[in-house]
Amino acid sequence: MNKAQRRPLIAGNWKMNLAEPVVLEAIETADKTNVDVVICVPSIALYQLDFIASKAKMSIGAQDVSAHRDGAYTGEVSGLMLAHTGADYCIVGHSERRNYHGETNLVIAEKVRRVLECSLSPILCVGETFEERERNIDFDIVSLQLRSALNAYNTKVFESIVVAYEPVWAIGTGKSASAEQAEEMCEFIRADIKAFAGLGASRRARILYGGSMDDKNAAELLAQPNIDGGLIGGASLDAAKFAEIIETANRG
Ligand code: 13P
Known about the structure:
The protein is an alpha/beta fold. It contains 11 helices and 8 strands.
Protein backbone atom coordinates (compact mmCIF):
# COMPACT_ATOMS: atom_id res chain seq x y z
CA MET A 1 0.00 0.00 0.00
CA ASN A 2 1.66 3.22 -1.11
CA LYS A 3 0.59 6.80 -0.56
CA ALA A 4 -1.98 6.66 -3.36
CA GLN A 5 -3.79 3.82 -1.59
CA ARG A 6 -4.12 5.72 1.70
CA ARG A 7 -6.94 8.26 1.76
CA PRO A 8 -5.70 11.76 2.52
CA LEU A 9 -6.94 13.12 5.85
CA ILE A 10 -7.31 16.77 6.68
CA ALA A 11 -8.02 17.29 10.37
CA GLY A 12 -8.83 20.59 12.01
CA ASN A 13 -8.06 21.12 15.68
CA TRP A 14 -10.09 24.03 17.00
CA LYS A 15 -8.43 23.75 20.43
CA MET A 16 -10.41 25.95 22.90
CA ASN A 17 -12.13 27.98 20.18
CA LEU A 18 -15.45 27.74 18.38
CA ALA A 19 -15.76 28.54 14.68
CA GLU A 20 -19.13 27.12 13.50
CA PRO A 21 -19.11 28.80 10.05
CA VAL A 22 -16.08 26.66 9.15
CA VAL A 23 -18.22 23.53 9.47
CA LEU A 24 -20.66 24.36 6.68
CA GLU A 25 -17.91 25.40 4.27
CA ALA A 26 -15.84 22.31 5.15
CA ILE A 27 -18.86 20.02 4.60
CA GLU A 28 -19.43 21.52 1.16
CA THR A 29 -15.77 21.24 0.21
CA ALA A 30 -15.37 17.72 1.60
CA ASP A 31 -18.41 16.51 -0.37
CA LYS A 32 -16.67 17.46 -3.63
CA THR A 33 -13.40 15.66 -2.84
CA ASN A 34 -11.83 12.30 -2.09
CA VAL A 35 -10.36 13.57 1.14
CA ASP A 36 -11.38 12.48 4.63
CA VAL A 37 -12.11 15.62 6.59
CA VAL A 38 -12.55 15.85 10.35
CA ILE A 39 -12.88 18.78 12.70
CA CYS A 40 -11.88 18.13 16.30
CA VAL A 41 -13.93 20.42 18.51
CA PRO A 42 -14.33 21.10 22.24
CA SER A 43 -16.35 18.22 23.76
CA ILE A 44 -19.27 20.49 24.56
CA ALA A 45 -19.80 21.15 20.82
CA LEU A 46 -19.70 17.51 19.70
CA TYR A 47 -23.44 16.77 19.76
CA GLN A 48 -24.40 19.97 18.01
CA LEU A 49 -21.80 19.71 15.27
CA ASP A 50 -22.28 16.00 14.71
CA PHE A 51 -25.96 16.71 14.13
CA ILE A 52 -24.98 19.18 11.40
CA ALA A 53 -22.31 16.90 9.92
CA SER A 54 -24.18 13.59 10.28
CA LYS A 55 -25.49 13.51 6.73
CA ALA A 56 -22.24 14.78 5.23
CA LYS A 57 -18.97 13.09 4.38
CA MET A 58 -17.20 15.16 6.98
CA SER A 59 -16.52 13.74 10.45
CA ILE A 60 -16.36 15.23 13.89
CA GLY A 61 -13.68 14.41 16.44
CA ALA A 62 -12.77 15.12 20.05
CA GLN A 63 -9.54 16.63 21.32
CA ASP A 64 -8.99 14.47 24.39
CA VAL A 65 -10.45 11.52 26.30
CA SER A 66 -10.24 10.21 29.83
CA ALA A 67 -7.69 7.47 30.50
CA HIS A 68 -10.39 5.74 32.58
CA ARG A 69 -13.36 3.76 31.34
CA ASP A 70 -15.90 5.25 33.77
CA GLY A 71 -16.31 6.11 37.43
CA ALA A 72 -15.52 8.88 39.90
CA TYR A 73 -13.39 11.13 37.70
CA THR A 74 -14.89 14.59 38.04
CA GLY A 75 -14.69 16.65 34.89
CA GLU A 76 -13.59 13.82 32.63
CA VAL A 77 -15.25 12.56 29.44
CA SER A 78 -15.03 8.87 28.56
CA GLY A 79 -14.45 7.24 25.19
CA LEU A 80 -17.96 5.78 25.25
CA MET A 81 -19.45 9.23 25.82
CA LEU A 82 -17.49 10.56 22.85
CA ALA A 83 -18.67 7.65 20.70
CA HIS A 84 -22.29 8.37 21.68
CA THR A 85 -22.02 11.90 20.30
CA GLY A 86 -21.27 10.45 16.86
CA ALA A 87 -17.59 11.40 16.93
CA ASP A 88 -15.32 9.26 14.75
CA TYR A 89 -11.88 10.50 15.81
CA CYS A 90 -10.13 11.63 18.97
CA ILE A 91 -6.84 13.49 19.26
CA VAL A 92 -4.61 11.90 21.89
CA GLY A 93 -1.34 13.16 23.34
CA HIS A 94 -1.34 16.64 21.86
CA SER A 95 1.75 18.53 23.06
CA GLU A 96 -0.53 21.04 24.80
CA ARG A 97 -1.92 18.15 26.89
CA ARG A 98 1.59 16.78 27.48
CA ASN A 99 2.98 20.19 28.52
CA TYR A 100 0.10 21.92 30.33
CA HIS A 101 -1.62 18.89 31.82
CA GLY A 102 1.35 16.65 32.59
CA GLU A 103 0.27 13.79 30.34
CA THR A 104 2.95 11.11 30.24
CA ASN A 105 3.53 8.47 27.57
CA LEU A 106 1.95 5.98 29.98
CA VAL A 107 -1.26 7.99 30.33
CA ILE A 108 -1.36 8.56 26.58
CA ALA A 109 -1.08 4.80 25.94
CA GLU A 110 -4.14 4.29 28.17
CA LYS A 111 -6.04 6.98 26.28
CA VAL A 112 -5.24 5.35 22.94
CA ARG A 113 -6.60 2.09 24.37
CA ARG A 114 -9.84 3.78 25.48
CA VAL A 115 -10.32 5.37 22.07
CA LEU A 116 -9.79 2.12 20.18
CA GLU A 117 -12.05 0.21 22.61
CA CYS A 118 -14.89 2.52 21.59
CA SER A 119 -14.19 2.10 17.86
CA LEU A 120 -12.97 5.65 17.43
CA SER A 121 -9.81 6.44 15.49
CA PRO A 122 -7.04 7.92 17.61
CA ILE A 123 -4.99 10.75 16.16
CA LEU A 124 -1.83 10.23 18.19
CA CYS A 125 0.33 13.35 18.33
CA VAL A 126 4.08 12.99 18.58
CA GLY A 127 6.83 15.57 18.21
CA GLU A 128 9.99 17.01 19.69
CA THR A 129 10.69 20.38 21.28
CA PHE A 130 13.20 22.78 19.75
CA GLU A 131 15.69 21.92 22.46
CA GLU A 132 15.34 18.19 21.77
CA ARG A 133 15.97 18.82 18.07
CA GLU A 134 19.05 20.91 18.92
CA ARG A 135 20.34 18.08 21.09
CA ASN A 136 19.81 15.58 18.25
CA ILE A 137 17.44 13.45 20.32
CA ASP A 138 14.36 14.27 18.22
CA PHE A 139 14.15 10.81 16.60
CA ASP A 140 14.58 9.08 19.97
CA ILE A 141 11.84 11.21 21.54
CA VAL A 142 9.39 10.57 18.70
CA SER A 143 10.16 6.85 18.66
CA LEU A 144 9.52 6.59 22.41
CA GLN A 145 6.22 8.48 22.10
CA LEU A 146 5.20 6.24 19.21
CA ARG A 147 6.19 2.89 20.66
CA SER A 148 4.83 3.51 24.14
CA ALA A 149 1.40 4.28 22.69
CA LEU A 150 1.18 1.84 19.78
CA ASN A 151 3.40 -1.19 20.22
CA ALA A 152 0.52 -3.32 21.51
CA TYR A 153 -1.37 -3.25 18.21
CA ASN A 154 -1.32 -5.37 15.10
CA THR A 155 -1.63 -4.65 11.41
CA LYS A 156 -5.41 -4.46 11.26
CA VAL A 157 -5.67 -1.83 13.99
CA PHE A 158 -3.39 0.46 12.01
CA GLU A 159 -6.22 0.93 9.51
CA SER A 160 -7.79 3.09 12.20
CA ILE A 161 -4.71 4.62 13.83
CA VAL A 162 -3.55 8.04 12.67
CA VAL A 163 -0.23 9.52 13.75
CA ALA A 164 0.32 13.27 13.62
CA TYR A 165 3.88 14.55 13.63
CA GLU A 166 3.70 17.94 15.31
CA PRO A 167 7.08 19.46 16.16
CA VAL A 168 6.36 21.56 19.24
CA TRP A 169 8.45 24.45 17.90
CA ALA A 170 6.21 24.74 14.83
CA ILE A 171 2.86 24.84 16.67
CA GLY A 172 1.17 28.22 16.67
CA THR A 173 4.43 29.95 15.76
CA GLY A 174 3.72 30.64 12.09
CA LYS A 175 7.02 28.82 11.45
CA SER A 176 6.19 25.48 9.86
CA ALA A 177 8.79 22.74 9.52
CA SER A 178 10.17 22.71 6.00
CA ALA A 179 8.76 20.04 3.70
CA GLU A 180 12.13 18.23 3.95
CA GLN A 181 12.16 18.28 7.77
CA ALA A 182 8.55 17.12 7.94
CA GLU A 183 9.08 14.33 5.40
CA GLU A 184 12.27 13.17 7.12
CA MET A 185 10.42 12.61 10.40
CA CYS A 186 7.28 11.16 8.81
CA GLU A 187 9.44 8.71 6.84
CA PHE A 188 11.16 7.78 10.11
CA ILE A 189 7.78 7.27 11.82
CA ARG A 190 6.66 4.90 9.06
CA ALA A 191 9.93 2.96 9.26
CA ASP A 192 9.62 2.77 13.04
CA ILE A 193 6.04 1.43 12.79
CA LYS A 194 7.37 -1.18 10.36
CA ALA A 195 10.05 -2.14 12.90
CA PHE A 196 7.65 -2.69 15.81
CA ALA A 197 4.35 -3.57 14.10
CA GLY A 198 5.34 -4.90 10.68
CA LEU A 199 5.17 -3.89 7.05
CA GLY A 200 1.37 -4.09 6.76
CA ALA A 201 0.91 -1.72 9.70
CA SER A 202 3.42 0.77 8.31
CA ARG A 203 1.66 0.80 4.96
CA ARG A 204 -1.80 1.29 6.46
CA ALA A 205 -1.02 3.96 9.05
CA ARG A 206 -1.91 7.48 8.01
CA ILE A 207 0.71 10.00 9.05
CA LEU A 208 -0.15 13.68 9.21
CA TYR A 209 2.00 16.75 9.60
CA GLY A 210 0.89 19.54 11.97
CA GLY A 211 2.45 22.84 12.98
CA SER A 212 1.61 26.13 11.25
CA MET A 213 0.23 24.36 8.18
CA ASP A 214 -1.86 26.83 6.17
CA ASP A 215 -3.25 27.46 2.69
CA LYS A 216 0.18 28.71 1.54
CA ASN A 217 2.49 25.89 2.61
CA ALA A 218 0.04 22.95 2.41
CA ALA A 219 0.82 21.99 -1.19
CA GLU A 220 4.51 21.41 -0.60
CA LEU A 221 3.98 19.57 2.68
CA LEU A 222 1.16 17.38 1.36
CA ALA A 223 3.19 16.43 -1.73
CA GLN A 224 5.69 14.51 0.40
CA PRO A 225 5.54 10.71 -0.02
CA ASN A 226 5.07 9.95 3.67
CA ILE A 227 2.70 12.78 4.56
CA ASP A 228 -0.93 11.67 4.17
CA GLY A 229 -2.55 14.85 5.41
CA GLY A 230 -2.47 17.61 7.97
CA LEU A 231 -3.53 18.42 11.52
CA ILE A 232 -4.35 22.08 11.39
CA GLY A 233 -4.81 24.48 14.29
CA GLY A 234 -5.06 28.19 13.53
CA ALA A 235 -5.97 27.83 9.84
CA SER A 236 -8.86 25.48 10.72
CA LEU A 237 -10.65 28.43 12.33
CA ASP A 238 -10.79 30.22 8.97
CA ALA A 239 -13.35 28.75 6.55
CA ALA A 240 -11.60 29.87 3.34
CA LYS A 241 -8.15 28.73 4.43
CA PHE A 242 -9.40 25.37 5.69
CA ALA A 243 -11.35 24.76 2.46
CA GLU A 244 -8.27 25.62 0.40
CA ILE A 245 -6.19 23.09 2.35
CA ILE A 246 -8.83 20.38 1.71
CA GLU A 247 -8.80 21.20 -2.00
CA THR A 248 -5.01 21.12 -2.06
CA ALA A 249 -5.05 17.65 -0.48
CA ASN A 250 -7.58 16.54 -3.10
CA ARG A 251 -5.31 17.67 -5.96
CA GLY A 252 -2.68 15.29 -4.53
P1 13P B 1 -1.24 25.46 14.38
O1 13P B 1 -1.70 25.00 13.03
O2 13P B 1 -2.01 26.62 14.92
O3 13P B 1 0.25 25.67 14.42
O4 13P B 1 -1.55 24.28 15.41
C1 13P B 1 -1.15 23.00 15.08
C2 13P B 1 -1.72 22.06 16.06
O5 13P B 1 -1.35 22.08 17.23
C3 13P B 1 -2.77 21.15 15.61
O6 13P B 1 -3.04 20.17 16.55
